[in-house]
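Mods, move this if it's the wrong board.
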Amino acid sequence: MPHQPGADWHYDVPTSGSKRLPPDSGYAEALRNQGYGFEVAVADLIDNSLDAKASQIVVHFLRDDDRLLNLLIVDNGHGLNDTGLDAAMTVGRRREYGGNALGMYGTGLKAASLSHADALTLVSKTKTSRAAGRQLTSSSLADDYRCDTVTPDYAQSLLDRYDGIIEWHGTVVRWDRVRTFETVELSQTDRFLSEAVQKLETHLGLYLHRFLESGSVRIDIAVENVRTGELLDSVEVEPLDPFNYKVPGKAGYPRTFTAPVEGVGDVKLTAHIWPPKSPRAEYKLIGPLAERQGFYFYRNDRLVQAGGWNGQRGAAEGHLNLARIAVDLPSQPNQVFSLTVKKEGINATQAFARGVEKAVDAQGRTFRNFLEDAEAVYREGSSRTEVKRRAVIPPGKGLSPQVKRTIQEELPEKPGEDPITFTWVSLPEDRFFELDRENRVILLNKSHRDTLTMGQHSGSNDAPVVKALLYLMVEELFGFTRWEKKRSDQLDYWNVILLAAASAQRDRFIH
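Not the wrong board. Structure tokens:
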């Protein structure tokens, strides 16, 4: 029998009462399995630091020799008192956010942390409150969402450990029993940390680039051996602006298009065309190019989506790799744009795609014209003859991040190769450097360290000029499977010459 429309439809469902249904303890397991990537989780925690108006943030990896222990995020933001700590650690509680806040759903701290660690500790103090702390663990969540109170003495000692960053106020987030750390073989700790720091530096540099460019905050990534107290690595995160080219791929760009989006109003689309085959890190180092074309959405200056077409086009097409569009999301709540919980993507209704189709700039050019221009620049660039540079083994720990990034911009990397690292060690007086080819390490004679750094070395990334020159000299030697006598002779005369140069510099330094 065909459907017969009637007048008995209830436009609202009638109810006859209500009752409270608190979450079951099994929800704790769901909280741990939110699918947060490591870099995404750390960025989510840093959002809290930025909301707290922190000007200094440190992401701190702690290790006990070769065993990875903890990850901590330290900031000098305005901090939390006991009431604030309780609210921050309450599962399912959503605090009030200001119009410019980066936080949105109130779940990030717990979900991001417990996706990677079995224990989350939050220690903080404000200008007017003492040091205090709270801890959530997998077992305490299963025990009816129990939250443990950190002893005041330990809370104060943890904050004191970061004196110089935290003075009158600040916060430390501590992860214990980090599941990824516990799967790293002891022999692979250095390699894991080198890759983890580089990926984290790139992710934070990209998604927080506007904050870093403004100078309002400094973010460092550090690695410390708690057994010796030695700072093994320290990297300042540099902004990675996805629109930072020197000259656009086509004159007249960037152009601003206005899209009439139903339910929102006019949305500005700032369209850019990158120059073809750009070597810049901002173009090459932020992931597969096909995934980085399209829209870059910002919410309160925080990048929340880096590429993608959001229904405006189908699958990514290689000939549009140069096309990127910056979009600042409207501040007022709306039904068109919704942010994913992990803040790494935007869901947009078809209203946005329809608005983009109607978008025009001040000269009446359409968004379709922009795509045609981007495709034409790409095809023209693809037809140019290009000098192909030799692929190299990537540089690793011990070389300045700025130098490493430039090498990555200028030279293609051999895929799947362990990086070449640097370290200062005791060597015979007739050796300026040696090569540990098996472990891919350039060993520098530490007796010359003060001379080369003018007595001002700080951390493992010192002497960048000497290290960069050595890398360019010897990188190829690490790739040889057969070692010839002439290579040893080459190392010998390089050492003699460099020792003479070090002696000459020492004489100038002394006199």
